[in-house]
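Hey, quick one: can you model this chain's 3D structure?
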Amino acid sequence: MKKILPFLILALLLTIIPPGGSSANTSVIQLGSDVLFTQFHQVIEDKKVGLLTNQTGINGSGVSTIDMIRRDYSVTLTALFTPEYGLNGKTPPDDPNTTYLHPVYGVPVHSLTGPEPQLTKEMLQSMDILLVDLQNIGTRHDSYLSLIHSCITAAKEHDKPIIILDRPNPLGGMIVDGPVLDPAFLSEVGVDTLPLTHGMTIGELALFFNRTIGADVTVIPMAGYKRSMTYQETGLVWFPPSPQLPDLNAVLGYLATGIGEGTNLQHDDSYNWMGAEGIDAYQFADLMNASLLPGVVFFPEERESAGGVRIQIIDPRLFNPAKTGIYALAHAEKLSDVVIQTGSSEHTLFDLRMGTSKVGEMLKQEASPKEIEAIYVPQLAQFLSLRVPYLIYNEEPYYPTMPISLKQHVSPAPTPIQTPEADGNMTETAPKPDAMPAVPNPAKPGSEGSVQPDQTNGSKPSQPQVQQPAASTPVPGTPTPESPPAKAAAPAPNQNPAPPVAEKVAYLTFDDGPSPVTLHILETLKSFDAKATFFVVGRSIPGNEEILKQIVAEGHSLGGHSYSHDYRYLYESVDAFFADMEKGNKLIEDATGVKPALFRYPGGSTNTISLKYQDPKHYNNNHTVMAAIKEESNKRGLTFIDWNVTNGDARSNRYTATEALAQIKQQVKNQKEIVVLMHDTATKSATSQSLPQVMQFLKEKGYHFEAISPDRQTISTVK
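Sure thing. Here's the predicted structure for all 719 residues.
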């Protein structure tokens, strides 16, 4: 009996542990693969499924999508497809076995490698649906993007539905930077008109690609994900997509240090070091550190005969890989010669990876980093507008109610992002999308501008009409744009004179900036000779200080809107709220010399979401954290500002300029005083596009525009 007992215990343990291993899920979000099986199983039920995946295709509990399908008796796995490095991520690129029968799963495994991976009719004929579960790395160069683009094209050609299981962008959703690819430079390292960092998830990219393909594409979104999340904040375990990218540091550093591919600038140590022969390591480090690039510091380090720098990423939320790489190229050129290697092809490898020949040309002229950035700022602005209808996530956690499907008429080919001619006029306009994802993101209760979800019964919203920014007012397309030098100092925001009470006054307010669209907003305000108020989120300030200086110099008001905008932390306690608010205000004061006396509560002063996060040891429904915060605000002499009109842009990123204007028209009656809530982030370009029409409408209603001053107490409680 004693000999048998250990085997009985082992047998018991095996009945407890699921076949895929532990099912403990420590992530704070649900991946598309989790949502597929928990919410939207009907899309694969009773279907023959082909699956494109590799070792990264696992759910939040660590179970592979292959195993999830094989455990599901209502689904038949008929074929597997793999990207470079095979199913396990370790297969040598030159492995001759491009197709084989899997010894365990008993299905064919097709390797889709090469510059133009092809899904043939024979490969697809055994399946009803092609399912895709891959983790991308957030850059335009990612080989998975060309593979997914090819799969969508094949799905269209062979009339097969394709389903993308969404995953986070490991570079985050806020960083959009670098040259936008010119269609003349389309290649396997650039399959669409994307910048170097696009800030989109793999599902959003699939919808974006499909605007020129027109396949039957469905995205299973993530649940609980929001655009500003870093990968670390998702709680997910990172599984390397290739041997060259063993950890997240390598992924973050890949573009910053590997941007010189096709030149003599080298990278090493899993993309944590870059340099070249002839470079003085200490001068290189000094130049890079003096550039004040956000979220990173540089240490001089030599590798054999090459001088270079080792990068240390200190804040993944702020770190900008594309911007860092452009600065590295420009500074390396000053210290040595960044030799762009030529070949037999029409375009060099470096030009193909840049998506343009202009960067290489400017490097040869020893242009400064800011001069190089300036050549692609207008195209970035156009890309930000072009991508809006295909974005799924915003600043609030997203909770899907149905899969997102996109069937549409398409443009014949990627249209060039318009480029300013010498006279400042745009030569072409980007195409207007023909359709948008089918399901708007319902706002969470208590969020800014929150409403109950529309009872649409799954109906498709009206098509967006994405307008492009005016050619004379280009919008910077990077979270850290180089703005024009600020004008001479202007009076502090709290010195704006209060208008007579009898007049009709509109206070335009913009939350959550500074951002890529701020300069466009400022230009519009200038054209109306109008003043406004910007409530700034502290974490958006580093790298955007010049924008704040311009806001002050042009006579607008600045107010605080917290540092983090994270309800979980802000509304835990009074101390947490003011520590966070003061951190953001300190950044405003450091950038402008103005200490803000105005602020806006994230979620508004009457929000209910604070009840969810208040510390139950100190607060309850009778003594709430919001009441305690308001009491402390009064003691500190701070003026909070609510709103009584909103354009609705807090609800979703998928809205149009026409819809934003309609919201305001519906809410503005004949009030003497209105405070209009709008948002100023990279995903709110439709707000800036609607602003001229909004301001014209309000002028016709008899309103004039003023910036908010703390001495106008009645504005605080306008609701």
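One thing worth noting: The two ends are 77 Å apart (CA to CA).
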